[in-house]
Specification:
This protein is an alpha/beta fold. It has a single domain (2-145), classed as D-tyrosyl-tRNA(Tyr) deacylase (D-tyrosyl-trna(Tyr) Deacylase, Chain: A, 3-Layer(bba) Sandwich). The chain is built from 2 helices and 8 strands. The protein has helices at 39-51, 99-117, and strands spanning 2-15, 18-23, 26-32, 55-56, 62-64, 72-77, 122-123, 130-145. Helix 1 (39-51) packs across helix 2.
Length: 150
Amino acid sequence: MRTVIQRVSSSSVVIDGVCHGEIGRGMNVLIGIEDGDTDEDIEWLCHKIVNLRIFDDDGGVMNLSVRDVDGDILVISQFTLYASTRKGNRPSYIKAARPEISIPLYEKFLLRLENILGKPAKKGIFGADMKVTIVNDGPVTILIDTKNRE
């Protein structure tokens, strides 16, 4: 699984002209899924996201997690995170899992994330044409790949 995590002051997702999810202070999480992803990846990634200390404490040091600041999370599925640009100028998405693999993993990811966070996450609709507004706070942007746990 690959994620782009952004600390936000606000974020929203609009589908067919209707706001489907909106948050204030928190995280916008773009997630891509590949064929080899497992429940172990979900478990590790969800704990990492919820406990990631990217929010400022009273001293202005990034020392607090989204849970510590009672922030919210907006999750957006994004297969393009697995774009390969090695050959030519048209990206290949062959590494991204097909919907029959990725949808169940995406749903498991959401359930586990909400369980660890202790409240519902906002989300887009898998596979929909979404318009996402992100007000990146900082900016703070973190890339996490479960296959490269640096």
